[in-house]
């Protein structure tokens, strides 16, 4: 399907206009604009330190842009948070944390339950479904430190799936995984739901991998700023890639 | 109630609240911070004793100074947080001793604040302790979800709307309350033994957070009783003996656990 016809009838899930992202005095993403189409898969690609993770943190409201405007589902990122599920990169669970796989996945429901509301049967169903989809139902009562790295990562993705969401964000979901875990998680990355029922969700993931980015519907190429964005075949061109990956100018001065 | 019974009751109340707060400190990897924080409230208590106002208020004020001080160090310098904690820990402890040294009964006051005076517990002390213990346990229940999510990952807790800043603030209040509710019995220096010792020991064996807390409280209760009995028969300082037992237990049980693990491993190798 041509990109343009999709973009007309789908509003943008995320709209960033002239945003600047910084940690203290360090500018991670210089003044840039980009958007993320709703109901599609967007890959954010760029080298380490290019601003990918910082951008995801701003979409989830964990950091606030120092300039520009950022709208998520038409709201401020903080207000959109309950509808955005964020799977973090490489969470190393402390070894002595006495948590089972199921308890960890259940945390995804806290987004709607808050500090106090009890788990109901719909919550338990969502947890079970997430465990099934990540093929870790048989590990439900194991402790986190008894799992392999790949299994632990699947637990965190299941935690993200258990949360009701319109946007699923995965930070480098495929980095350093065993084959089974990579296959299972890749299935999640490219599943935006059923277009016929209108039950579509937006997936955003970051990657270093060009072939992974090429498999997305929309690509945002970062190198300290947004270098290019659009359909993969328009973005993943040599001139853009050299600019983002091949030069040392990761953080060019703001215009 | 006689002196010994009041000491036992005071110890039991400490054993019910301190390990609950301690469990969160261990799970969050904040034991060093907790230790510093406990000594940091000393000047507050000292000022209260000196000027005759509520030790609760004094400790709360000192806790606030600690938190603000840590935030300043964190924001204004590139020093790692533990440097700030260490700095404030020594500073506040020294300030506390300086303040107490202005009181006429310097030696007596400082010893009883730092090391407790289990045999000097009054019925009024017990009532205050009971109220504080209830508050600490209540806070622990209220904060269960945010704290366990933060123990996994602070950023994830924020993304889930768990309000880590508020939860952290209330956790500090919980620790401060545990210290205030415990210092009369075991002292600010030794409360750490009953707060973190049992929790650390419990973490060697517990399969869930609830199990860890129940086990930690059980170990603390055992420590209080054993500590009092030993101190009675050997005429040692009651509070210090109570503080010593959980730490000794930790190393004994750690050794036992290691032996069990080794035996099992050998069994697997031979199978």
UniProtKB/TrEMBL annotation, chain A:
<protein>
    <submittedName>
        <fullName>Manganese transport system ATP-binding protein</fullName>
    </submittedName>
</protein>
<dbReference type="InterPro" id="IPR003593">
    <property type="entry name" value="AAA+_ATPase"/>
</dbReference>
<keyword id="KW-0547">Nucleotide-binding</keyword>
<dbReference type="GO" id="GO:0016887">
    <property type="term" value="F:ATP hydrolysis activity"/>
</dbReference>
<keyword id="KW-0067">ATP-binding</keyword>
<dbReference type="GO" id="GO:0005524">
    <property type="term" value="F:ATP binding"/>
</dbReference>
<dbReference type="InterPro" id="IPR027417">
    <property type="entry name" value="P-loop_NTPase"/>
</dbReference>
<dbReference type="InterPro" id="IPR050153">
    <property type="entry name" value="Metal_Ion_Import_ABC"/>
</dbReference>
<keyword id="KW-0813">Transport</keyword>
<comment type="similarity">
    <text>Belongs to the ABC transporter superfamily.</text>
</comment>
<dbReference type="Pfam" id="PF00005">
    <property type="entry name" value="ABC_tran"/>
</dbReference>
<dbReference type="InterPro" id="IPR003439">
    <property type="entry name" value="ABC_transporter-like_ATP-bd"/>
</dbReference>
<feature type="domain" description="ABC transporter">
    <location>
        <begin position="14"/>
        <end position="248"/>
    </location>
</feature>
TrEMBL record, chain B:
<feature type="transmembrane region" description="Helical">
    <location>
        <begin position="165"/>
        <end position="183"/>
    </location>
</feature>
<feature type="transmembrane region" description="Helical">
    <location>
        <begin position="85"/>
        <end position="106"/>
    </location>
</feature>
<feature type="transmembrane region" description="Helical">
    <location>
        <begin position="238"/>
        <end position="256"/>
    </location>
</feature>
<keyword id="KW-0812">Transmembrane</keyword>
<dbReference type="GO" id="GO:0043190">
    <property type="term" value="C:ATP-binding cassette (ABC) transporter complex"/>
</dbReference>
<dbReference type="GO" id="GO:0055085">
    <property type="term" value="P:transmembrane transport"/>
</dbReference>
<feature type="transmembrane region" description="Helical">
    <location>
        <begin position="7"/>
        <end position="27"/>
    </location>
</feature>
<feature type="transmembrane region" description="Helical">
    <location>
        <begin position="126"/>
        <end position="144"/>
    </location>
</feature>
<feature type="transmembrane region" description="Helical">
    <location>
        <begin position="213"/>
        <end position="232"/>
    </location>
</feature>
<feature type="transmembrane region" description="Helical">
    <location>
        <begin position="47"/>
        <end position="73"/>
    </location>
</feature>
<dbReference type="GO" id="GO:0010043">
    <property type="term" value="P:response to zinc ion"/>
</dbReference>
<keyword id="KW-1133">Transmembrane helix</keyword>
<dbReference type="InterPro" id="IPR001626">
    <property type="entry name" value="ABC_TroCD"/>
</dbReference>
<dbReference type="InterPro" id="IPR037294">
    <property type="entry name" value="ABC_BtuC-like"/>
</dbReference>
<keyword id="KW-0813">Transport</keyword>
<comment type="similarity">
    <text>Belongs to the ABC-3 integral membrane protein family.</text>
</comment>
<dbReference type="Pfam" id="PF00950">
    <property type="entry name" value="ABC-3"/>
</dbReference>
<feature type="transmembrane region" description="Helical">
    <location>
        <begin position="189"/>
        <end position="206"/>
    </location>
</feature>
<protein>
    <submittedName>
        <fullName>Manganese/iron transport system permease protein</fullName>
    </submittedName>
</protein>
<keyword id="KW-0472">Membrane</keyword>
């Amino acid at each position: 399907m041509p990109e343009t016809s999709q973009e007309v009838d789908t509003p943008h899930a995320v709209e960033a206009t002239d945003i600047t992202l910084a940690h203290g005095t360090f500018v991670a993403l210089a003044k840039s604009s980009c958007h993320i189409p709703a109901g599609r898969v967007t890959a954010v690609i760029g080298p380490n330190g290019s601003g990918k993770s910082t951008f995801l943190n701003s979409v989830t409201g964990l950091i606030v842009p120092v300039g520009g405007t950022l709208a998520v589902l038409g709201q401020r990122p903080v207000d959109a948070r309950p509808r955005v599920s964020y799977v973090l990169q490489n969470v190393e669970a402390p070894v002595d944390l006495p948590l089972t796989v199921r308890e960890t996945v259940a945390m995804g429901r806290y987004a709607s339950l808050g500090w106090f509301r009890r788990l109901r049967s719909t919550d338990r169903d969502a947890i079970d479904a997430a465990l099934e989809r990540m093929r870790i139902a048989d590990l439900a009562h194991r402790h986190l430190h008894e799992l392999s790295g790949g299994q632990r990562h699947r637990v965190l993705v299941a935690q993200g799936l258990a949360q009701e969401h319109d946007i699923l964000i995965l930070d480098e979901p495929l980095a350093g995984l065993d084959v089974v875990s990579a296959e299972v998680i890749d299935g999640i990355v490219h599943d935006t739901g059923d277009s016929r029922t209108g039950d579509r969700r937006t997936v955003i993931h970051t990657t270093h991998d060009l072939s992974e980015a090429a498999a997305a519907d929309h690509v945002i190429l970062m190198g300290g700023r947004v270098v290019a964005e659009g359909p993969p075949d328009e973005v993943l061109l040599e001139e853009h890639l050299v600019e983002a990956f091949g030069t040392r100018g990761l953080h060019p001065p703001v215009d | 109630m006689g002196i010994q019974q009041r000491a036992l009751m005071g110890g039991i109340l400490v054993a019910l609240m301190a390990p609950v707060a301690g469990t969160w400190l261990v799970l969050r990897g904040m034991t060093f911070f907790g230790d510093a924080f406990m000594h940091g409230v000393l000047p507050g208590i000292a000022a209260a004793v000196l000027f005759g106002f509520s030790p609760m208020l004094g400790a709360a004020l000192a806790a606030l100074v600690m938190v603000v001080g840590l935030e300043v160090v964190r924001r204004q310098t590139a020093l790692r947080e533990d440097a700030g904690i260490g700095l404030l820990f020594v500073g506040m402890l020294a300030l506390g001793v300086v303040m107490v040294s202005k009181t006429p009964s310097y030696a007596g006051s400082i010893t009883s604040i730092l090391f407790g005076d289990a045999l000097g517990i009054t019925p009024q002390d017990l009532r205050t302790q009971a109220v504080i213990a209830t508050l600490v346990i209540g806070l622990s229940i209220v904060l269960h979800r945010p704290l366990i999510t933060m123990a996994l990952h602070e950023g994830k807790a924020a993304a889930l709307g768990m309000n880590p800043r508020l939860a952290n603030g209330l956790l500090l209040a919980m620790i401060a309350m545990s210290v205030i509710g415990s210092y009369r019995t075991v002292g600010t220096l030794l409360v750490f033994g009953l707060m973190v010792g049992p929790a650390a020991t419990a973490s060697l064996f517990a399969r869930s957070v609830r199990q860890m807390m129940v086990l930690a409280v059980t170990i603390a209760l055992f420590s209080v009783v054993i500590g009092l009995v030993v101190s009675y028969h050997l005429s040692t300082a009651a509070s210090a003996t109570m503080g010593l037992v959980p730490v000794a237990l930790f190393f004994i049980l750690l050794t036992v656990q290691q032996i069990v693990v080794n035996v099992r491993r050998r069994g697997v190798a031979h199978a």
